[in-house]
Amino acid sequence: MFTLIDGRYQAVASKIEEEWLSDPNSSKWYKYISDLGEPDKATYVIMVFHNQVENGGLHQYFSNSYGQFAKETIHLLKQIKAFDAATILERALGLVKPLDMPFEEFRKALRKRTLRSIFQNDDIVIPLDDLDKEYYSLGDEPLLKLEEFLRTISDSN
């Protein structure tokens, strides 16, 4: 159904090394994704976001360290005009990330599993579940917008 997404996602994900994912002190995974061109980065972060939320919700997205890409994901969701999905992730990030915490520190705390709001505080479970329900109501809209974005890029080349 999403042929442009699937091929691009597989190409990006196949280059991620297991040690990048398993070492909480490594920034290689983040650097690799950050250094990707926009179409590849959009494909990876949006697919991961969508799959994580569909599989286990926003709590899973953050607790599995994918929340380290939340800023990029919000930006790219807006770029592909998936504004509702971007707003949901912005609201979730507002619940999870302490206001006074710099994003780099937040990213590292997610990787090391020391972020209180996710790993030691049940107060955000229900608000995140409510946001999950909002996201589920979007269906495949974010992926349809991503596929359209990728098609536009490939048509212009």
From TrEMBL:
Organism from which the protein derives: Haloferula sargassicola
Q: Which Pfam families match?
A: DMP19
Q: Which InterPro entries match?
A: DMP19_C
In what residue span(s) does the DNA mimic protein DMP19 C-terminal domain sit? 35-152
Instruction: Tell me the Gene3D superfamilies matching this sequence.
Output: 1.20.1420.60
Q: What is this protein called?
A: DNA mimic protein DMP19 C-terminal domain-containing protein
